[in-house]
Amino acid sequence: MAAAHHPKPKPKPTLGSGTGMKPKPKARSKPAAPLSDSHIGLEARAISADHLDVRIWLRLLACSEQIEQEIRARLRLHFGTTLPRFDYLAQLERHPSGLRMSALSSYMMVTGGNVTGLTDQLVADGWVERTADADDGRAWRVRLTPKGHAEFATMAAQHETWLAELFSGFAVADKQQLYEQLGRLRAHLAQGASTAAATSLAASPKYGRAARPPSATHPAPQPTRPAPRKNRSPS
After folding, report:
1. Which of 50, 111, 135, 194 pairs as cysteine with 54 (C-beta 3.0–4.6 A)?
2. Which residues lie across from 131 on neighbouring strands?
3. How far apart are CA 213 and CA 220, in angstroms?
4. Residue 132: enclosing H or E segment and its boundaries?
5. Would the pLDDT of 84 be above 70?
6. pLDDT of res. 215
7. What local confidence, expressed as pLDDT, does residue 176 receive?
8. Quick one: angle between helices 83-93 and 112-125, nearest 10?
9. Around Cβ 54, how many Cβ atoms within 10 Å?
10. Phi and psi at residue 119, to the nearest 5°
11. Cα distance between residue 25 and residue 203, in whole Å
12. Residue 166 phi, psi dihedral angles, 5° rounding
């Protein structure tokens, strides 16, 4: 008796396996619409003949300024506060043990005088407190009070909602790519700044060529001494 024939089961179709089913492409954002004169902002300085680097720089400035203006307006409208105050509170929220005034100034990229003024205001409001620095008796640390924590938490939640709204026209993949590219730009700029600082230091008269040790062909100049004064008899 002949053995029964059992056909092999057909493999299940997979994405991109020639069955007509193609992998689903990642969602992409819609192409940008042209800006009107009332919204073009800093990019009005650029023309099509400008170098691409110039146009990128102006576009970054315009985007940053437009987002900042919107956030400033909303903070003022909804909370009666300013963006510098929000940034100040955000830095302290990230450092529960507090920060020295000098570190706070560096993180916010503002002068010490500006930090002192903001600190005075927020201490008066009961949102921030000053404490003596345990490592340096001449320095102060500032940190959020319980009231400051609560008030900032409310503002921070709304701030995040606003930013999500402002970036809502972008797909997640596009936002991630933009974030990574800007990170590469920041790293490149930081490296370039370090190289430029080193080059500038080497070329300076004090630390550069003029500071090389003297040689036989270029001896170091000898200081001149004033001639001794002759004693004069009083007239």
Report:
1. 50
2. 141
3. 8
4. strand 128-132
5. yes
6. 52
7. 96
8. 80
9. 13
10. -60, -45
11. 53
12. -65, -30
